[in-house]
Amino acid sequence: xxxxxxxxxxxxxxxxxxxxxxxxxxxxxxxxxxxxxxxxxxxxxxxxxxxxxxxxxxxxxxxxxxxxxxxxxxxxxxxxxxxxxxxxxxxxxxxxxxxxxxxxxxxxxxxxxxxxxxxxxxxxxxxxxxxxxxxxxxxxxxxxxxxxxxxx
Length: 152
Prior knowledge:
It contains five helices and six strands. It is α+β, with helices and mostly antiparallel strands and 152 residues long.
């Protein structure tokens, strides 16, 4: 598969490793004044979308409604670095309760017991579900796939 192929999410070992890790995604979006923003955020990959939950008054929701184009990176910190880059469009849906994909992510990141306790404290409160539909995927592994500036 080549850079840009969305199929890498389901078929590349580096993508699978990063999607199943406890490394937070970095969600990049454009603020309403045109300046860039990046925030770390927990996620699960649902086999088609990167899903995130956030409070319904989170400032990023205003920006995502105005411009849904986003970039996501999930990268480790040990050389040879592994980097998963995703570009796509975000859809925001308001929920009356904790989104179940958010609950899955909470257990993955915090551990089963702590994740369930965290989610229990949020039950019954509204939440925004951000679902990113990947449109472009790139992988760097610094073994066989390098940034274009290093490729000869």
